[in-house]
């Protein structure tokens, strides 16, 4: 089969190769991949590498397709089923995190697209527990968006809760930010989306998706806007979805005293944080790392019930043979969620 393989650490070292088609072992499901989304972590793996990447490995962790074959003992799926896959490939099953359902913290966890082979391939194998049936009303493109949406669900519905009528600010109108904003709206919040002037089309899309207010921070003072909606207190919750140091500083500045700050971005390298602000203003910082199994079912239900418009964040679907162009579109912010079609 054809697959996009990161064959060793370091810049580049990614190429489309012919590799053996995996056979499902006992308890595993093999899916024919129809859509696989490109995440910014994939870009970082491509350009830099680093932990938790363990090459040689096939990248890609936002995946939907059709069951192609099942291993011995699999009872929930059969060939032809429309499915998506969660990202967990292996966990220990016995540590305190596994017992709590917090698989994202299992010390032995292996994820697809970084340690185990992922979805930038014609076929993918994963454990039965990580495979989910895709309703007929949900497209394969939407199915591949469930992973980033589940990150927003975990952040705003599981790590903490959004109160009705609370003011939530989302910094960064990328795919993650737009999905997280819709999760906040689904819980009844007043949502402000902030971005830069080059993000104009994304900010316009946010308004079409029902976001209450958008701010181009090059043209308006975000702190002033936020205070105008909060009796000068600041936002009840701020979600940082850019991964940029200035946005982290801004997030602390606009969060109300005793407010909630959620760093959702992928930070490939350490950044400085003003710890004094956390202490003095009693900010409640809730780290949010990927998702847990319950996040996925909630995310899929939000799409199925029309509470989240996943189609709106999908801008491109390119053949996997054109992966370099697809990666360039993501890197140059020429689209939102860009997907690969491994059948082409």
From TrEMBL:
The keyword NADP does not apply. Its cofactor is Zn(2+). PROSITE patterns: ADH_ZINC. Transmembrane segments: none annotated. GO terms for molecular function: oxidoreductase activity; zinc ion binding. It comes from the Bacteria. It holds the Pfam family ADH_N. The keyword Magnesium does not apply. Gene3D superfamilies: Medium-chain alcohol dehydrogenases, catalytic domain, NAD(P)-binding Rossmann-like Domain. Residues 10-340 form the Enoyl reductase (ER) domain. Keywords: Metal-binding, Oxidoreductase, Zinc. Belongs to the zinc-containing alcohol dehydrogenase family. This is L-iditol 2-dehydrogenase. It comes from Propionispora hippei DSM 15287.
């Amino acid at each position: 089969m054809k697959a996009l393989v990161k064959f060793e650490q370091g810049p580049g070292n990614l190429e489309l190769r012919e590799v053996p088609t995996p056979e499902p072992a006992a308890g595993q499901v093999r899916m024919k991949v129809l859509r696989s989304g490109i995440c910014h972590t994939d870009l970082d793996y491509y350009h830099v590498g680093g932990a938790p990447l363990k090459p040689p490995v096939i990248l890609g962790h936002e995946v939907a397709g059709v069951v192609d074959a099942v291993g011995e003992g699999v009872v929930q799926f059969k060939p032809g089923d429309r499915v998506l896959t969660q990202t967990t490939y292996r966990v220990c099953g016995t540590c305190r995190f596994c017992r709590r359902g917090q698989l994202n913290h299992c010390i032995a966890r292996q994820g697809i697209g970084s340690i185990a082979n992922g979805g930038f391939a014609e076929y993918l194998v994963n454990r039965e527990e990580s495979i989910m049936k895709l309703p007929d009303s949900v497209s394969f493109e939407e199915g591949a968006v469930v992973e980033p949406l589940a990150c927003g669900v975990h952040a705003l519905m599981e790590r903490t809760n959004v109160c009705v009528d609370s003011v939530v600010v989302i910094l960064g109108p990328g795919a993650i930010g737009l999905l997280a904003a819709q999760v906040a709206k689904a819980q009844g919040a007043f949502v402000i989306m902030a971005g830069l002037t080059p993000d104009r089309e994304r900010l316009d899309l946010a308004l079409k998706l029902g976001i209450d207010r958008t701010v181009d921070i090059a043209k308006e003072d975000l702190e002033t806007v936020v205070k105008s909606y909060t009796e000068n207190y600041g936002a009840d919750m701020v979600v940082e979805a850019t991964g940029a140091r200035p946005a982290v500083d801004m997030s602390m500045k606009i969060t109300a005293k005793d407010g909630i700050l959620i760093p959702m971005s992928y930070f490939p390298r350490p950044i400085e944080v003003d710890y004094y602000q956390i202490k003095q203003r009693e900010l409640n910082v809730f780290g949010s790392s990927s998702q847990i199994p319950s996040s996925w079912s909630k995310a899929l239900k939000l799409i199925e019930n029309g509470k989240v418009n996943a189609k709106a964040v999908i801008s491109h679907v390119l053949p996997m043979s054109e992966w370099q162009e697809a990666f360039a579109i993501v890197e140059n912010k020429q689209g939102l969620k860009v997907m690969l079609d491994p059948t082409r």
